[in-house]
Amino acid sequence: MDRLKGKTVFITGGISGIGKACSLAAAREGANVAVADLKSDDTESVLNEIRKENPDAIFIECDVSDFEAVRGAVQKVIVTFGTLDVALNNAGISGEPNKVGEMSEEGWLKVIAVNLNGVFNCMRHELAHMAKQGSGSIINMASILGKVGFATSSHYVAAKHGVIGLTQTAALEYAAEGIRVNAMCPGFIETPLLEKGGINEDVKQAIISLHPVQRLGTSEELTGGFIFLASDESSFVTGTSLEIDGGYLAR
């Protein structure tokens, strides 16, 4: 415990799924947690859960696809806590399932706006502050689909490949300034995002069969990797993409 004691952690998409699990984990490890997300019916209850672990946690309403909104969110973190030590750029959406040739322009642009541009927007502002203080750890939520293709998910696949590319490039650019930049690549996880993807039971079972462990992952199973990358335990780790995928990519 207390592996993040005294650190400030900024997490986007922190009200549900993986983001919520990581927000709770960071608070348990002693971090000041700033959760950014779109407001929902669950916002207050989740924030209260996090505050049971650390009463100083705050919520910031933010659409990561809005560059100025992200600027304001990061600035609020700095004003509130005085520092920004760890950022988990996790906010994402699934989008419409369709072949490339049948994908709507709106469907394509919406996923790219959140899942790729949103990560860039966050990194721009996070890196500016971390560079001033000469330290920091950024973790971008990529995916196994940032390394392989997946039918009917071209927008999501393209965005996550882009996130890995952004991660590697920023890691090279900022290593000498004391900033580490890494990505996490989960397999398919039981989250509200997966449910919103319109996956029926037959498709779900087919996806499960692609994981050698023969099940989907849980959000809580990602928190160990997140805390490792966020903490000083990973001080020699940058530019990597940590696969937590039940063996999916080993097939």
What does this structure look like?
- The protein is an alpha/beta fold and 251 residues long.
- The protein has one domain (8-250): NAD(P)-binding Rossmann-like Domain (Rossmann fold, 3-Layer(aba) Sandwich), CATH 3.40.50.720.
- It has 9 helices and 7 strands; from the N terminus they run βαβαβαβααβαβαααβ.
- It has helices at 17-28, 43-53, 67-81, 105-115, 117-133, 154-174, 192-196, 201-209, 223-230; strands spanning 8-12, 32-37, 58-61, 86-89, 136-141, 179-186, 241-244.
- The longest helix is centred in the middle third of the chain and has 21 residues, at 154-174.
- It is globular, with a radius of gyration of 17 Å.
- The termini are far apart.
Shape by Cα distribution:
globular
Number of H/I helices = 9
What is the CA-atom radius of gyration, in angstroms?
17 Å
**CATH C-level label:** Alpha Beta
Poorly predicted segments:
none
Broad structural category: alpha/beta
The biggest beta sheet is recorded as: 7 strands, parallel
Number of domains: 1
Helical content band = 40-55%
Order of helices and strands: EHEHEHEHHEHEHHHE
Q: Termini, distance in Å?
A: 35 Å
What do the pLDDT scores average to? 96
Briefly note the CATH topology name: Rossmann fold
Number of strands: 7
